[in-house]
Specification:
35% strand, single chain, 7-stranded mixed β-sheet, 5 helices
Amino acid sequence: MIKKLNLNDTETVKRVLELQIASYKVEADILGFYEIPPLKDTIDSLKKCDEIFYGYHIRDALAGIISYKTINDTLDIHRVAVHPNFFRIGVGGKLVDYVEGNERAINRIIVCTGNMNIPAVSLYLKKGYKKINDIEVSKGIYLTQFEKILNFKAI
C-alpha cells in the first residue's frame, strides 16, 4: 500500500531515515562514493527538506519511499529508496508509477541516479525515461539525469 508520509511526525521521519540510509548505502557501495547527500541527512534535515514523501508499505514495514517537488509543470524526483530487504520485487517501480499518476498538473519528470547504479538506470529506462546527460559530482563519479515527457497536459 502506498500512502503519503507526514514528516512532521518524528517516528515517521526515523523510519524514513533508517530506510534511506540502508538503501543509499548500497548505492554508495556500487559507486564507491559515500558523499551521497541522503546519507548525510538527519531527522532535522528531513523535516526541513520541503519535499513530498510517499511510502510503500508491506504489512507493517516501510519497504520504500519516493520524494519529489513540483515546479511549474515539472515533477523533480529527489529520492527513490527501497530497503534492501525488499529489493527486486518492484517497489521502486510502483512508487514511480504512483507519483506519475498522482500529480496531474505536470507534463515533465526529471530524476538523477548514479550512472553505475544499474538497477535504477534500468528502472528509469524501462519506465520510458530518456537519458539527458551525465553530471560529474566528484572526480570520476557521475550522476545520470533522466527526463520523461508525459503525453498528456493537465486540463
